[in-house]
Give the backbone structure.
Amino acid sequence: MINDYYEVEVPQYVVLGSNILEKGLKEINILKRVRVALIITGPTKTREYGEIVKNILADMNIKVFIYSLDSSFEKMQDKYTNEIRSILNVALQNGVEIIFSAAGGKVFDIVKVCSELLSIPYISIPTTASHDGISSPIISYPIFEVISNKIPLKSSRVRPPIAILADTAIVSKSDRRLLYAGCGDLIAKFTAILDWKLAHERLKEKFNEYAAAMSILGFKIVKNRRKIINLATEESYRIVLKALIAVGVAAGFVSSSRPLSGSEHIFSHTLEMLLYRYGLKPALHGEQCGIGTIIMTYLHGKNWRLIKSILREIGAPTNANELGIEEKYLIEALAASRKTRPTRYTILNERNISYEEAKKILCEVEVI
Ligand SMILES: [Zn+2]
């Protein structure tokens, strides 16, 4: 009888270092057979990086198209579907064989969706160290929720990037706020794994020790190296990138985002969707997840003060004021979190939190 069976889907190439972009691209075997590529960038600075990648690929006799996402796409979730349709058109009309994501943030989700729908591979070239989407085979929950009504995407689980080229010379030019946010996304693994273990205990949900250990490693790296990370040197970016890549790869061990995301992410997603509804801009994903981890560690009855002090020493926000979000939205989000994703069993399923209780909890952990 087989007790354990799982398919491991991981990137074939991971290149991390300073000024590795050109050498790294030239060493990827699959690119030697590619004739047409599409580079997706964000609206501003990442366009320059897209041009750099384009020149290297052109040197390798690859025909390259660049698609830069519109500046307003982050604010208007409905625009995601329009952007995806435009990218699919460009790719189909030009016989694109591979997609590059030369960006940070939500561009990765768009690239993952397009790669999945076109059944072609993608290569991840992060320009920030702000989230684990650079390596994970997962589309973030709020975006999946928005687009899956209009785009025929069956699951938020997609293929992982075929290669990751993380050039610290590029990434270290990004704002240190993004680096600290990446640490929030790593700190989040602490409660993500607690929630996973809880679901295993209560519902016998399958638990994978390898994936859990890799994910917790991401948390430990940030915990142990927080003082160096705070300095925001190129070494700090290298440490955080390496940890983000490792935890993203951990998700390739199981068919879900379980190792990466638990109640703290559900809180962040709830807050994000709520703010969009009010026409307001959320904080960074990792920043919100960091705050979520303080709250959920408290609900798990663990040492939330330690989580808070790690985040503070890193330089990440630890309360509503530093997050730049009014207290009332955080209270509303915590009270509503239980209903956001009830099928993912977490500590949120264990108690009903009213608005008044949410307020009390947030005061207790000094988030408000
Ligand atoms: Zn995350």
